[in-house]
Amino acid sequence: NSSESPNCAKSILTSDRLQVVVMLSEFFNETWEAANCANCLKNNSEGLSNSTEEFLDLFNKSLTCFEQNLQGEALDLSPNNYTEVCKNCNATYRMLNDRYNYLQRLNRQGGEAGHSAHLCIDVEDAMNITRKLWSRTFNCSVPCSDTVPVIAVSSFILFLPIVFYLSSFLHSKQKKRILILPKRIQSNASLVNIQEKYS
């Protein structure tokens, strides 16, 4: 039907009682929005944005690197021995991680797609997979180099109350207990002795 009248479209879309076409259309639109798919595309949605293509290229290179180095370690693949993967794929993983961080910063400013929301689900899932492989499976996470300064500062802060109370104890005047004699009338026996002296 070549007519573009709204009645014609309405009769076609809502011809059945369940309105399957409308339900499917709403489902796909909601999924598209929830997955932030538009954030991976160019402004006119003609294809993937340049930054997304670069990220996916680095993602594929990282997975290829993991796979090639795992094949090289096939003879000695104990659960914690992935030194070749960590050593040979470090540069590729760092580049992928830097690209992801760049995309996040770019996306906060509006991004190539003109939308300011989360990154699209494909990019986030790809980075989650790579980080899980890198840190959990291959155990390639580098320990934080800032542990010594953090421990030093924490120790200093913990000892501050001790130093404070110790210095206040040493520099404050200690009040000595002085016994004050009571000013009471002496006993009757002493009064009798005084009267005898004067009489």
From TrEMBL:
- Which PANTHER family does the entry mention? OSTEOPETROSIS ASSOCIATED TRANSMEMBRANE PROTEIN 1 (PTHR15644), OSTEOPETROSIS-ASSOCIATED TRANSMEMBRANE PROTEIN 1 (PTHR15644:SF2)
- Top-rank taxon of the source lineage equals Eukaryota
Q: Which InterPro entries match?
A: Osteopetrosis-assoc_TM_1 (IPR019172)
Q: Which residues cross the membrane?
A: 148-170
- One GO CC annotation: cytosol
Q: Tell me yes or no: is Metal-binding among this UniProt entry's keywords.
A: no
- What is the name attached to this protein's record? OSTM1 protein
Alphabetically ordered keywords of this record: Membrane, Transmembrane, Transmembrane helix
